[in-house]
């Protein structure tokens, strides 16, 4: 039980950290596209897609390297 | 006899081979529990990511004001205090306490803190207090007073934890084996005491509800008071800025000095150059730093003598700063090769250089004509980042990259990643600093010429985009460190390191020199 909770806690930390990094990249994408006068809809969609891709990629990368 | 023969193999099983017992800095690793240190350090690493993200959010809002469509809890006015308080109290303060709990037992000759358990639970309480702070500020419950936005109950909880930590430190010093106190321990004793007094006075803690007549009204006032307990007055502003600058002068700076006095001699394996200089820096800081907070109010109608004292103190502060600077510089004499080969030392010394720069810059900012040109501009924001990011965050990253391999008694997962971390934050920070400094001069000049703000904003917009881009590099650097530390703990880095050395030695051009950091 302790092991399960421990693993769960560690996964939560991984997902939170990966989520924050993805949010950073997503915000950066938004700022750059917005500065280039890209239409708001395209800016938003691209930023969200980039955020999601970075999130999934980061969690997968960590999961592949270490068995949490 | 059999037990004696078995001894080396048992030592190896526990602590690794002779090579593994040597870390990147060649220090023999012994067993300290470090329970308290770990939890403070881990928390600080996570908080660095969180508070940097807050910074990224507000940097993005400055270029794209409609980014979050007016979502109240993500407004600039709510996230900015969380970024500032988070950097000081969540990231740096937790890193500092982790470092204190790591360094202090080693300096006073004990095997652990007086109570590792107390230190451990204090870390959780501190985390809880900051979570409460985030929740309250995001929901609009704030004193609205810069650097002390958290409402009274949150600050009270933090003060309780703070006092418990002080008690833990003092009891550890009391049970010490090594009788003489190294200068780092002086700072460890004095600085938390100073800051406790600073917070207690600066937050006017003895007046949680100045006007309420009964308990329920008092509770309502505690969480809804829109300004400091002394009311919206110049007196309150003076107390506020006295308190705010003392956060730097009585906590952040002393701890940087204390930790450099420990880590630089430790890593370079060189004694501190001068004990006398360290005394000058200690007493000089204690004397001059408390007087300079009012230089934030040089453009405000406060008494002239207060301004004079703050300007005088700001300039005189350079004496203890240079005493400290010379001491570290001369301790490094003959050891600069390690700056290029030892990454924790590189972080520490980069933080040191930025620290000297920020002090020189700060003293000049306290001179009236210069202050007139830079006050309220982004020059001040650049200065604050030179301190909190350039000096203290670089130091913190070096401290963490040094401590984690020591605590876990195994090499870092990847020194290459640490190298990336270093260059990402270095380039990101220098770009960020230069951009903000330029914006500051533009603002100062245009305001002096009477240009309306609305005409100024389009001029500085491209710079703010640059600020966001460089800011993202800084945030990413923190995540690189978090990943590296995570992998160091989770992966068998000893085997990995052995394999790396083996591969290096098999290379036809290999020398007997181990790659840097490995």
Folded structure, characterized:
- The complex is a heterodimer of chains A (68) and B (518).
- Chain A has 68 residues and is mainly alpha-helical.
- Chain A has 2 helices and no strands.
- Chain A starts with a helix and ends with a helix.
- The mean pLDDT of chain A is 88.
- With 518 residues, chain B is mostly helical.
- Helix content of chain B is 74%, strand content 0%.
- Chain B contains 19 helices and no strands.
- In chain B, helix 6 runs antiparallel to helix 7.
- The longest helix of chain B has 38 residues.
- Chain B is globular and about 70 Å long.
- Chain B starts with a helix and ends in a 12-residue tail after the last helix.
- The N terminus and C terminus of chain B are likely disordered.
Sequence-ordered SSE layout with sheet pairings:
The complex is a heterodimer of chains A (68) and B (518).
Chain A (H helix, E strand, L loop, with lengths): L1 H34 L4 H26 L3
Chain B lengths: L1 H14 L2 H4 L13 H29 L12 H33 L7 H23 L13 H23 L8 H20 L12 H10 L9 H35 L6 H14 L15 H13 L1 H14 L5 H5 L1 H23 L2 H7 L3 H31 L6 H34 L4 H38 L2 H14 L12
Helix pairs in contact in B: 3-4, 3-5, 3-18, 4-5, 4-6, 4-9, 4-16, 5-6, 6-7, 7-9, 9-14, 9-16, 10-12, 12-14, 14-16, 16-17, 16-18, 17-18
**SS-derived structural category of chain B:** mainly alpha
Rg estimate of chain B, integer Å: 24 Å
- The number of strands of chain B is 0
- Average pLDDT metric of chain B: 88
Largest sheet of chain B: none
Q: State the helicity of chain B in percent bands.
A: over 70%
H/E series of chain A: HH
Oligomer: heterodimer
Low-pLDDT ranges of chain B: 1-5, 20-29, 511-518
Mean pLDDT of chain A: 88
Strand content of chain B: under 5%
> What amount of the residues of chain A lies in strands?
under 5%
Largest sheet of chain A: none
Shape of chain B: globular
The structural class of chain A is mainly alpha
